[in-house]
Amino acid sequence: MLASCLATALVWACKDGPTGERQTPSPAPPPRVVVLGLDAGTWDLLDGFIDRGLLPNLARLRSGGTSGRLQSSEASSSPVIWTSIATGKVPEKHGITWFVRFPDGPGKPRPVDRTQRTSRTLWNILGDKGLDVAVVGWYITWPAEPVNGRLVSDIAHYGDIDRESFPPDYLITLAPVAENEAIAAMPGFMDFAYDPSRASPSEGTAPSLDFLVYDRFVRAYSRDLFYIRATEALLGDGPLPDALFVYLRGTDDVQHGFWKFMDPRPFGDVPSEQVEKFGKVIERYWQWIDGHVGEILAHYETPPLVMVMSDHGAGPAVGTATVTEHRYLHLSGAHRSQGILLANGPGVRKGATIEGASVYDVAPTLLHYLGYAAGDDMDGHVLTGLFDPAIADRPVQHVSTYETDPASGPGSAPAPAPLPGPAVDQKQLEHLRSLGYIE
After folding, report:
1. How do the domains of the chain map onto residue ranges?
2. What global pTM score does this model have?
3. Tens of pLDDT along 76-109?
């Protein structure tokens, strides 16, 4: 009789038959997958936070897994990059090339939406393989498309929007987070007497501190809390999905707004009383996110594969990134070209470092881990260095493409998008203008 048999999600299971003979092995199912997108994560900050014991969940994942820097694409445009992460393709192939488009002519922007996407995503591909997928808040997922599972789109936090989720009535009773809830949470992040009546920007003058707090904290916290609640509701709703994709954007927002208070040295003229008020916002926001990472993973009795990533890094808005226009003077953080990548779970190397990874590598790497082929039309490669030999040494399978016939579904010519409504459209455009992404 066999003394023992290694049984992990990616190794053949084996057992003895009733007469002691060895039975034909059968493959165990792959582990569940959790993909967490944390916008603008940078090891330049997180290393220090982890060393100080502020991020126990990310620290545990990192020490027990493999991590490294993730090279972003040249254009620091979040909707473009998150779509590249989900598809493994450059923007010219997947169709999302900027924050906005101009279908109504010059000077009349509309935010990009999912119908401009011309490539299939990981959740499309895995759903076709029979995996139950769940997508929460991932950039450029509205209008919600049919998936083999559940999807909460990236503008569902505005509430009462056509096709905000799939199935169409999924989590329809989950209310948007009221601004008052974010205001009530402020003392845990900053020491500031916020006055909403002073939060509107005045033409021709530098934005007030109240506008900074509204624009960079209230919006961020409210949006992230909605998608955190959606994730918790989803994970408590029946069996856990085979593959979960969650995106949270607020880490980027607070870094844009509060960097100079956290690190005033590159700026030289930050009043000490403002440093006292706002100097801990970024680290406390990351602590808040880290706590929710732990709560999400606590739903899994058997360890899943966890992949944590960012679309780009961050740093102080100095040098060529210095803000000079009055209406953007509330911004003090800027993007950097290298984000984070972290993997932990069955078959992942422990305590190792990966080098040379890019945002295009995530999709083919995840497919390889799950035993599926990488698309030859994907622009990344499989990061075998993330894995133990049982997975790293497995031959990489190839398929020419996962795209479908133009008449048959996702990856085809997009259907016209329903309008989200002028109020929601305007809120999205206001947010993009406040960051200086559009005029």
Report:
1. 32-434
2. 0.88
3. 788 999 999 999 999 999 988 876 655 656 666 6
d(CA 425, CA 96): 18
SS3 state of residue 140? coil
- Distance in angstroms (rounded) separating the CA atoms of residues 255 and 311: 14
Tokens (6 digits) for 345: 């779970």
Residue-wise pLDDT for 174-206, tens only, equals 999 999 999 999 999 999 999 999 998 776 677
The 10 Å Cβ neighbour count of residue 349 is 19
Backbone angles phi, psi at 386, to 5 degrees: -75, -20
Determine the Cα–Cα distance for residues 406 and 399; give it in Å rounded to an integer.
18
391's enclosing H/E stretch is helix 389-392
Give domain 32-434's CATH number out of 3.40.225.10, 3.40.50.2000, 3.40.50.300, 3.40.720.10.
3.40.720.10
Report the alpha-carbon angle 251-254-260, nearest 5. Answer: 130
> Contact, 199 vs 182, CB < 8 A?
no
Q: How far apart are CA 367 and CA 375, in angstroms?
A: 9
Using one digit for the tens of pLDDT, what is the confidence trace for 293-337? Answer: 999 999 999 999 999 999 999 999 999 888 877 777 889 999 999
The DSSP symbol for 399 reads: E
Closest alpha carbon to 235 in 172, 145, 283, 300: 300
